[in-house]
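Let's do one together. I've listed all components of the complex below, 580 residues spread over two lines.
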Amino acid sequence: MEARFQLDYPGFSLAVDLRLPEKGVTALFGPSGSGKTTLLRCIAGLERAPRGFLAVAGEVWQDEDKKHFLPTHQRPLGLVFQEASLFPHLSVRRNLEYGMKRAGHAGGEEFDAMLRLLGIGALLERDPGSLSGGERQRVAIARALLTHPRLLLMDEPLAALDLKRKQEILPYLERLHDELSIPVLYVSHAPDEAARLADHLVLIDNGRAVACGPLMETLARLDLAHAFGEDMGVVLETVVAGHEADDLTRLEFPGGKLYISRCDKPLGSRMRCRVRASDVSLALAAHGDSSILNLLSATVIAATPLSTPGHVQVQLRLHGDGAPLLLARVTERSRLALDIAPGRSVVAQIKAVALLG
Amino acid sequence: MDASSLAAVWLTVKLATLVTALLLLVGTPLAWWLARTRSFLKGPVGAVVTLPLVLPPTVLGFYLLLMMGPYGPAGRLMESLGLERLPFTFAGLVVASVFYSLPFVVQPIQNAFEAIGKRPLEAAASLRASPWDSFFTVALPLARPGLFTAAILGFAHTVGEFGVVLMIGGNIPGKTQVLSVKIFDYVETMQYAQAHWLAGGMVCFCFLVLLLLYGSRKKSPWV
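Okay, and this is what the predicted structure of the assembly comes out as:
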């Protein structure tokens, strides 16, 4: 899909020119006030950029050069807001049917499948007011999907939920990710959410798209580190390879092995992990005298100074076929002491791995 | 209560019911527009709608009388259409009352529409509902408490009007002699017992209406 928008409000302007994949989850990531929600509203047709062009799946929804603008209700899209905007005067069932009927879908088996997918079968006759935040959001997602959208837009769907509710709903979103064949645009300012769900990342800052690319590559870019601050780091796509006797689980990926505290995922299941740059230290050789379990050999690609004085970030390529990049954060003193420069072979010591499920 | 009192009560109920129905029909789209528009006309139109709230009824009645009279624009229009002129008729009372009670109907509905916000309507649009569709299936049902308040206030305010009625309708029994004018009549002719029946009845009626309004909602009815 292709999206170009230019729009000026007092004190804020949006100017983006994006080509986004027609499949998978694309995270629109950026700080509050960066314009990601405005961008989403432009795509939904809730906001009309005076200069804009939008084509989804080969169909032009907006082309201001030709004064063409499809109003929201004529766009085959699904929209999930930050707070579930269920209609309070309708039961859950009638909320679900509202869009389904208007989009001309009868329901039946597909309706039941959606209830199962989002675990809301027992809520049908309830009032939206009596649901928990997580339940409401699941109903809102089902309501949007039942219209058979060709594009699903989600505006920080978890931001209004507490941690427990988030954990409750994330597995459902992951299932959607695996089962949906339509593109999803997911607005978020939480790095973990974006890292867990997205395949593709668009970094928005101050009304501009500063980066756009596959998630893992984009997260490993040195020039974008400032956007993530303390959360700077990469995401690794691993497979659960073994549960060991001493209560550790072994994860494998093209760059090597990682040991984590035992988790109850079945063997062979995929697991995304996030490795923060600040949790990676470097050594010239693997010593047997370290308590750190996860040691991965890598080659230095580049090292650049960080905004924190005396610190540098190092981009590494792990060894192995199709091995991913890794970011490390070390002091300038260490960099000089170890002579860390492009081409140097090092051992990355990973102090902590955050599981993203 | 004598027959002429009953006739006044019946006329008043007929007038208030008709006026309330007309006001909901006219006031709802007007309130919708006022709640949603970004036009520069919002201020002026809002002020005009609210005028009857602050103007003395005699002022309103005076100008309505001029408009509807044989030399006023409304009067000429009626005449050219071959219709009866409005002053001193029941129809004239209806028209005048619609103007007089307009703010009492528009404001609660406007507040209700504003309280809904744009989110439910955006959600409806994303679910393929056209603007008309979402107005009837989302905005109106969500504004129901406001519509209820508006209907009650419009009805009660029309029942209670006096100055405008006197200016436009006069005091013709069975035709324009409504309750409030009838009471004035009784008092002028020292028939206090008859006046008590009607005046006391009005106090009870108004109390019950307000009780209904406050009792049915936890919040202030003017929300």
